[in-house]
Design brief:
The chain is an alpha/beta fold and 173 residues long. The protein has two helices and 16 strands. The N and C termini lie far apart (99 Å).
Length: 173
């Protein structure tokens, strides 16, 4: 209906559906095949969202815009994406194929294919099956104080050598 410019009727269907299901899908959203909303209460899908095939989203997910700008302002979820409970995916960004968004995450930037993103703001923690970023192995964390002491000691050794060279030079005169 929305594509045929029957805006009022499209909005009526959207609002009636929202009343009965608790799911708000703007009539302008483009949704692929086998899209699945599990426990859909509180789901919001914005006007310029594009959702690929075999995508799953859970309760309380928002696929929203970040402002009143014109044109594409809502996310694109590529095929086989999964967005977990309570996640907020905001702006004209892309969630890549086979990617997952963790529960409660707030995603404001593109997510590459085959990735898992979590947190506020969302950050990629797994890409192509490999962990990304800090592993927080506390035994091997850098020690900036010890590093600076080593640098100071090296500088002192160099200064000692320079002083000895100057002393030898003054003896020659």
């Amino acid at each position: 209906m929305f594509k045929r410019k029957l805006f009022f009727m499209a909005r009526v269907v959207s609002q009636v559906s929202r009343f009965f299901t608790g799911i708000e899908i703007h009539p302008g959203a483009v949704i692929g095949r086998r899209f699945f909303i599990d426990h859909g209460m509180g789901v919001v899908i914005g006007e310029t969202c594009v959702i690929g095939n075999d995508v799953t989203i859970y309760q309380g997910v928002t696929l929203g815009g970040t402002g009143k700008e014109k044109g594409k302002r809502h996310p694109t979820l590529e095929d086989h994406a999964l967005v977990a409970t309570g996640a907020k995916v905001l702006g004209s960004i892309t969630i890549g194929k086979h990617s997952k968004v963790g529960a409660g995450s707030v995603v404001l930037r593109d997510v590459p294919p085959n990735s898992t993103v979590v947190g506020i703001p969302g950050r990629v923690v797994v890409q192509d099956g490999m962990k990304v970023g800090n592993d927080l192995d506390h035994c091997n964390l850098p020690d900036p104080v010890a590093e600076r002491f080593r640098e100071i000691q090296e500088e002192m050794e160099q200064m000692k050598e320079d002083i000895q060279m100057l002393r030898k030079g003054s003896d020659v005169l």
